[in-house]
Please model this.
Amino acid sequence: MSELNDLYQEVILDHNKNPRNFREIENADKQADGHNPLCGDQLKVYLSIEDDKVKDVAFKGSGCAISKASASMMTQAVKGKTKEEADVMFTEFRQMVMGEMDTDTEENSLGKLKIFAGVREFPARVKCASLSWHTVHAALNGEVEVSTE
Ligand code: ZN
Model:
């Protein structure tokens, strides 16, 4: 468990310091604003869609290390995926951080995102970790704004 915590710390710090796809997409096909009032995290997710797939995805915003690292890894995870595949990941990610799914024993498509499983021990951080997923889910479904409350 402490090994997992070390990995978790390392990955969060890395993605917080060097967030991937941290930019705007001009003329994005879809975009949405996400807000987590509990912590003050705020981000905007941009999507380019081609042939029903996420051709490009990026985010901008400010927030705590967990929200930023999670958004960074979310963009890597959904790139190239269909809306349906991204929706499945959103559902699985939410179940994982809420402690409703054991990613070690239950089949899932989360891959590297499993390092966020530890967040379930910290209820106040669950919304930080899932904000970018709520936001990309909203954008894919044509909504422009989402709040975790
Ligand atoms: Zn936060």
Q: What stands out?
A: The radius of gyration is 14 Å. Helices lie at 2-17, 65-78, 83-97, 123-140.
